[in-house]
Design brief:
Shape of chain B: elongated
CATH topology of the largest domain in chain A: SH3 type barrels
Number of domains of chain A: 3
Radius of gyration of chain A: 18 Å
Number of strands of chain B: 10
Largest sheet of chain B: 7 strands, mixed
Shape of chain A: globular
Strand content of chain B: 5-15%
Largest sheet of chain A: 6 strands, antiparallel
Distance between the termini of chain A: 33 Å
Strand order of the largest sheet of chain A: 3-8-4-5-6-7
Largest interface: A-B, 42 and 42 residues
Oligomer: heterodimer
Number of helices of chain B: 27
Structural class of chain B: alpha/beta
Helix content of chain B: 55-70%
């Protein structure tokens, strides 16, 4: 049985990964709002259980086993956020409740809710959810915009430029050193900073 | 009635960025333009006049935007102007080669229910991309007259103007009403009925749509009249969100794009040409992960080199020609006129203008060619570390030459917050004049490694202060979201005209300031106030910074031109061997203070131009305090 705390940690580390930030004791502790000392202790424990590799003063890398859990919990968190905000809950509660629910909701239920908001037919049970941030597409890969999770200003600007749900988008190339992405959408080419691109979720074909 | 008594016809040009709007504006108005700011805003307002068949015509060039939401000042300025000032006609300029995205904006203009015609521009580019457009069909779908144009060649523009004036006079245009999905229309008409009952300057249907979208500004305006309308619109929006599972603003934006897509598909045929386009081939090299960077560095070097060789040459030329005027006046009043008024004027013409002119020319060229967005793309990550994004790269690099054009270049940033941070960071970059002081004093008398260390320290400080400004300043930071327009050959006439207008605009703002500053300083000198000033400042200069009292005067004069600090040091001390008057530590401290202590008067003028008086004053005061702080710390560390 994986504890909630374990899930929280793996989720936070995966989240840092996704944004391209280094996962160190400090950054993980900051992300989870815990004391660095207790983060250190927990990371050591997780390393022993085989979820991650921990090098003192350097940081952590997730093992495939840890990455799988981190990714899954983060996805559940996002689906629950979307679900709750659709119910009309205020933003302050959405995040808090999603943090709670992400540990309890069964995989198949999460998938059903997710697909309800995608407006699509159900995939066979057990199929992996194929919605990923735009940043995880390879150069030349295409996806269909699913939703945009970023701030209001940025997401308005993105939709204004044509990134509306169900639009096809292609990553042309990404700049070196985790720089911005060049994408093509509706016959135009756009450059999107990596931080913003990470809030655009696409369904991979 | 004579034509002189008639009210001029007003035409507003509206469209996305990079569609050739400014080329058309320049064609219409020639040099009869005025570039200023919109009242109370730091958004550029370009206005021009012309005469057409006996009619006086005012042309307003609205900012290049993609939407009419309230998120950027440009968008707010544009929609307020169209809805409230009500130009006689709007010319929507559309890039025929990206029809769908442009129609998205057209649809929003139609929502504003303004008389409108369309210039279907860049027909040549569209043809190159294998796009043919059925104009009668498009005209039918939108209900507005459409004139195909190629602005860079002048094709179709006279016809466009004729048509615009004709419609503006007759006020006869019946744009098609755009209709969205059934359940959305239901809510729109319900809210429209409520809005129709209240007095509001915007079209009711448009207000209804904006309320459903949750537009902050419109909610406030309507809320002041009747809060109930806002809350019922909110309720309807929630209903829609439940049906669609998306934010209401997203639903409506998608809906507009659906309409745009349908119209575009119905009226254009695309047969893509074989092989990659010129842009694709150029992009493969210029944004290549390996080759892209040497190219970027090469281009930046070329820009700096050109600006400073041309600038240096022109500067020397003007100085030689105009310099003698300065001493041509005798007596105290004569000195005030000669040194003060003419000295300031000459400083403006001989020192500032020669660098501004080539800079603007190159900036406009780079803008027109489409390379700027590529440079921003390549450097976004680096610039992020100092709290700004890729677009600020060019102003940043230019800052090493002269802070003035660099500050003016910050206008390419989208949000006011980003513009402020970029301009602030740029004023911290040591310009050529500062380099003269650092190299001439520290480099020559203390050692070149100390000079380099000062530059390294400067970079560190820029990174830190940039990040601090990023954290402290309010407002949303957008990050990088920009269109990468195709590469194109810059249109020479437009580039020259735009350069000229920008230079003129700068002269109007900066020259009075430079001359006033110069007169005041000369007045102090003539009035024998220099020594008292030096003495007054001595607690700071001598007590805190450990410098000789004379440096107070130098620092005051440095506000005019920073290299003056060194020039005057030589004059006042009657020696160029500075080692005899300053200790190495004093030199370092002095150079540090000069580096940061205040943007020179021309830079302050540029800051005023871009950010307004208040922010310019904040930045100036902060930098004075910061320079004194760090100078004092350096003095104590070095003597410890």
């Amino acid at each position: 049985m994986i504890t909630e705390r374990t899930e929280e940690y793996l989720e936070a580390i995966y989240y840092l990964y996704e944004r391209g930030e280094a996962a160190t004791t400090t950054s993980v502790a900051k992300e989870l709002k815990v004391a660095p000392a207790s983060a250190t202790q927990m990371l050591k424990k997780l390393a022993k259980q085989g979820y991650l590799k921990y090098v003192p003063y350097r940081g952590v890398t997730l093992t495939p086993k840890g990455e799988k859990i981190g990714k899954k919990v983060l996805r559940k968190h996002r689906v629950m956020e979307k679900f709750l905000s659709n119910l009309g809950l205020p933003k302050s509660r959405v995040h808090k409740d999603a943090c709670e629910l992400e540990h309890h909701i069964p995989d198949d239920l999460e998938r059903v809710i997710h697909q309800r908001f995608e407006g699509e037919r159900l995939l066979p049970p057990g199929a992996p959810s194929n919605v990923v941030p735009l940043t995880s597409l390879l150069d030349g890969q295409k996806g269909i915009v699913s939703f945009i999770g970023g701030g209001r200003g940025a997401s308005q600007r993105l939709t204004d430029l044509g990134l509306t749900p169900r639009t096809e988008i292609k990553v042309v190339k990404s700049a070196l050193f985790r720089g911005p992405l060049m994408v093509s959408v509706r016959g135009t080419t756009l450059a999107i900073g990596r931080g913003i691109a990470a809030t655009v979720f696409v369904r991979v074909k | 009635m004579s034509t002189a008594e008639k009210r001029p016809i007003t035409i507003a040009l509206a469209g996305n960025a990079n569609v050739g709007k400014s080329v058309i504006f320049n064609y219409f108005t020639g040099l009869h333009q005025h570039i200023g700011n919109w009242p109370g805003k730091t958004v550029e307002k370009a206005e021009g006049t012309l005469h057409f068949k006996g009619h006086a015509v005012d042309v307003i060039d609205l900012p290049g935007i993609y939407s009419l939401s309230a998120f950027s000042i440009e968008e707010r300025v544009s929609r307020e102007y169209i809805a409230i000032q009500k130009p006689d006609i709007v010319i929507n300029i559309v890039d025929a080669s990206v029809l769908e995205r442009n129609l998205f904006f057209t649809i929003q203009l139609l929502e504003l229910e303004t008389p409108m015609i369309m210039a279907l521009n860049q027909m040549d580019v569209a043809k190159g991309k294998g796009i043919t457009i059925n104009i009668p069909q498009l005209q039918k779908s939108l209900g507005i007259p459409i004139i195909p144009t190629i602005a860079t060649g002048g094709t179709g523009l006279d016809k466009l103007l004729g048509k615009a004036v004709k419609i503006a006079k007759g006020k006869k245009a019946n744009p098609a009403k755009m209709r969205y999905g059934r359940e959305i229309e239901e809510k729109i008409s319900k809210v429209t009925k409520l809005v129709e009952k209240i007095p509001i300057k915007y079209p009711p249907r448009w207000v209804a749509i904006k309320l459903l979208e949750g537009d902050e500004e419109i909610r406030k305006i309507v809320g002041r009249i009747d809060q109930k309308i806002v809350s019922s619109a909110e309720r309807y929006a929630r209903d829609l969100e439940r049906i669609h599972g998306e934010l209401c603003s997203t639903i409506i934006t998608s809906e507009r794009y659906n309409v745009a897509n349908k119209i575009a598909r119905g009226s254009q045929r695309i047969t893509p040409p074989r092989g990659p386009s010129l842009t694709e081939r150029l992009d493969a090299v210029t944004t290549h992960p390996v080759m892209g960077y040497p190219i970027l560095i090469g281009i930046m070097f070329l820009v700096l080199f050109t600006v400073f060789t041309v600038g240096g040459y022109l500067s020397g030329f003007f100085e030689d020609v105009m310099g003698p005027i300065r001493g041509a006046f005798g007596g105290e009043i004569g000195e005030l006129i000669g040194e003060g008024v003419f000295g300031g004027l000459i400083a403006g013409i001989a020192i500032v203008l020669p660098f501004i002119l080539p800079f603007y020319l190159i900036l406009t060229l780079l803008e027109g060619s489409g390379y700027l967005p590529r440079a921003a793309f390549m450097t976004d990550n680096l610039m992020h570390r100092m709290g700004i994004h890729g677009k600020a790269f060019i102003p940043f690099i230019l800052g090493y030459g002269c802070n003035v054009p660099a500050c003016l270049g910050c206008r390419i940033m989208e949000t006011e917050r980003e513009r402020t941070i970029a301009a602030f960071v740029v004023t911290l970059v040591p310009c050529a004049a500062v380099t003269v002081v650092v190299l001439g004093l520290v480099g020559a008398f203390v050692g070149i490694h100390w000079a380099l260390a000062l530059y390294l320290l400067n970079l560190v400080i820029i990174f830190i202060l940039g990040r601090v400004a990023f954290k402290v300043l309010p407002g949303e930071s957008m990050g990088l979201i920009m269109e990468m327009p195709p590469y194109r050959k810059p249109h020479v006439r437009s580039v020259l005209k735009e350069t000229w207008m920008r230079v003129k605009d700068f002269v109007y703002i900066a020259f009075p300031l430079i001359i006033i500053g110069s007169v005041v300083l000369t007045g102090l000198k003539v009035g024998g106030l220099l020594e008292p000033i030096g003495n007054t400042l001595s607690p700071v200069t001598v007590g805190w910074l450990g410098l000789p009292a004379i440096t107070g005067v130098l620092l005051v004069f440095g506000v005019l031109r920073k290299e003056l600090t060194l020039v005057m040091l030589a004059t006042l001390m009657a020696t160029t061997n500075f080692a005899t008057v300053l200790t190495p530590i004093q030199m370092i401290v002095f150079a540090i203070v000069v580096m940061y202590y205040i943007p020179c008067i021309a830079t302050i003028a540029a800051l005023v131009r871009e950010l307004g008086w208040k922010k310019a004053a904040y930045i100036t005061v902060f930098e004075i305090a910061f320079a004194l702080l760090i100078g004092g710390i350096a003095f104590r560390l070095l003597t410890a």
